[in-house]
Design goal:
Blueprint (H helix, E strand, L loop, with lengths): L2 E5 L10 H7 L5 E4 L7 H7 L4 E5 L2 H8 L9 E2 L10 H13 L13 E5 L3 H10 L7 E4 L4 H4 L1 H14 L6 E5 L4 H5 L3 H4 L3 E5 L13
Helix pairs in contact: 4-5
């Protein structure tokens, strides 16, 4: 695992330095230790020009993000409905209706598709995008990816299925602010050869959040 340091030029949210930060990212899949919680890493990827599938372990977090004022109408949450009569196919259709309104379906919209989904529903997104022949246009962001290990004790089948469905692409950002993960990743074949990117924040940012020092 090759370690790379990216120095954040200020203490503001990462979306303020979007072009600079992304220009430093390695090509292909990589692990990103943001070190600073609440630094706006997911906001950054939801604001950039890449088609994104943002995967999260918690549906509540997804719902809050998708309904933030700056993202309403521009981000699609793939979320199973409380109404049990709503099928997976209907949810996939709603997703495709959204995608057709983005620059994948209409180059004049000015914004890329952003799909937010939980780990366990990711397979349904992958299936439909593959059928449409557009799956390879998306970057995948796995938020809080340390939960793949911490949650495995009580829903290991979900985590393994999720990792299996990630196998279609080499464009995955594994995102976390959990420092101990680095020690384990070297021992796991799926992550051992990935670039490990660590953000280095200026000292003046230390008092604003819980930074790993």
């Amino acid at each position: 695992m090759v370690k790379q340091i990216i120095r954040v030029p200020g203490k503001e949210h990462l979306s303020e330095y979007l072009d600079y930060i992304q220009s430093q990212f390695p090509t292909g899949s990589f692990v990103l230790n943001k070190k600073l919680t609440g630094c706006g890493a997911t906001t950054m990827v939801l604001k950039n020009s890449w088609p994104i599938i943002l995967c999260s372990p918690r549906s509540e977090l997804n719902h809050c993000k998708a309904n933030a004022p700056e993202f309403i109408g521009r981000v699609h949450e793939f979320r199973p409905c409380d109404d049990r009569n709503t099928s997976v196919f209907e949810l996939q259709e709603r997703m495709m209706e959204y995608i057709r309104k983005t620059d994948l379906g209409n180059p004049f919209t000015g914004y890329a598709p952003k799909i937010i989904v939980t780990y366990d529903s990711f397979k349904h997104v992958v299936q439909r995008l593959a059928e449409e022949g557009i799956l390879d246009q998306f970057h995948i962001v796995v938020d809080e990816f340390q939960t793949l290990f911490t949650d495995a004790a009580f829903k290991g089948d979900v985590e393994m299925e999720f990792l299996y469905n990630l196998g279609f692409t080499d464009q995955v950002m594994y995102l976390s602010a959990t420092p101990f993960m680095e020690n384990y990743l070297y021992q796991l074949p799926q992550f051992a050869n990935l670039p490990y990117v660590e953000l280095e924040w200026p000292k003046e940012a230390y008092h604003t959040a819980n930074i790993q020092k």
